[in-house]
């Protein structure tokens, strides 16, 4: 519980390697995560070589932790393995559809979070890279992922070489709804986001970007509509290519 309460994203790592036995043990323990129909619809690709990390880096916008971390893990939604098993056992799989991708995606993210929690409790640091679903096609090509396998999360892992401040989180009243969803009033929104908006680093973001509000940093700079639509079309293209979407 303490490791969960104190968790933070680690982007700088010591040169110390992670023993294969430790990494494999953490992955095996992480596989106890809840899974759809006990099918375990995921795979993980372990990247250790400098050459492969250098090839992966541009696909994650050259974020330095990709090449600096001793290990990079690419977690994949995977219906390939289960479908092969079905066919080898005289059963015809029907998992080349969007619902099956969502099921595999859910399995994979539960597995990924389990791994991160266990790794951090073992003294390792992790960083979640959301860029995986922004740029899946070249990752598929580099890692030679077959049909019905799609990368959905990348985690850099290593022994921490920094101890950054914990980022803020919304108050409980901002995320909990009793019995049914209660729409937020303008006063609710003000109260929920007031602390985040008051933080010096966020006020600085507003100032240096010549914006009026913190929300504009998200909508106009960090996660723009045009970028979201462009990457959405790319993701749909990849799901079609990998057999999950017609």
Brief sketch in words of this structure:
With about 250 residues, the protein is α+β, with helices and mostly antiparallel strands. About 45% of the residues lie in helices and about 10% in strands.
Provide structural commentary:
This protein is of the alpha+beta class. 47% of the residues lie in helices and 12% in strands. It is built from 11 helices and 4 strands, in the order ααβααβααβαβαααα. It has a 4-stranded antiparallel sheet, sandwiched between helices. Helix 2 packs across helix 6 (98-121). It is globular, with a radius of gyration of 20 Å.
Describe the sheet with the most strands. 4 strands, antiparallel
First-residue to last-residue Cα separation: 43 Å
Residue-averaged pLDDT? 96
| Number of E strands | 4
Give the DSSP E fraction (strand runs of 2 or more residues): 5-15%
Low-confidence stretches: none
As a whole number of angstroms, the C-alpha radius of gyration is: 20 Å
Q: What structural class do helix, strand and pairing data support?
A: alpha+beta
User: H/E element string?
Assistant: HHEHHEHHEHEHHHH
Q: What strand order characterises the main sheet? A: 1-2-4-3
Helix content: 40-55%
- Rough outline: globular
Our count of helices gives 11
Q: From the structure provided, what is the oligomeric state, counting identical versus distinct chains?
A: single chain
Keywords:
alpha+beta; 11 helices; single chain; 4 strands; 246 residues; globular; 47% helix; four-stranded antiparallel beta sheet
């Amino acid at each position: 519980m303490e490791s969960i309460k104190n968790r933070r994203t680690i982007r700088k790592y010591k040169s110390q390697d992670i023993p294969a036995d430790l990494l494999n043990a953490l992955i095996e323990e992480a596989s106890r995560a809840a899974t759809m129909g006990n099918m375990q619809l995921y795979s993980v690709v372990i990247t250790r070589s400098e050459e492969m990390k250098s090839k992966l880096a541009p696909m994650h916008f050259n974020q330095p932790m990709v090449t600096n971390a001793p290990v990079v893990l690419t977690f994949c939604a995977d219906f390939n393995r289960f479908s092969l098993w079905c066919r080898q056992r005289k059963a015809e799989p029907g998992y080349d559809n969007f619902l099956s991708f969502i099921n595999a995606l859910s399995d994979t993210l539960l597995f990924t979070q389990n791994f991160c929690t266990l790794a951090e409790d073992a003294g390792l640091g992790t960083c979640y890279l959301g860029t995986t679903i922004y740029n899946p096609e070249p990752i598929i090509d580099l890692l030679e992922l077959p049909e019905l396998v799609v990368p959905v999360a990348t985690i850099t892992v290593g022994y921490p070489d920094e101890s950054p401040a914990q980022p803020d989180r919304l108050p409980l009243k901002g995320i909990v709804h009793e019995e049914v969803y209660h729409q937020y009033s303008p006063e609710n929104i003000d109260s929920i986001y007031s602390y985040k908006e008051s933080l010096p680093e966020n006020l600085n973001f507003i100032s240096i970007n010549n914006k009026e509000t913190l929300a504009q940093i998200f909508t106009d700079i960090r996660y723009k509509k045009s970028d979201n639509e462009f990457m959405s079309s790319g993701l749909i293209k990849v799901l079609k290519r990998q057999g999950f979407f017609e």
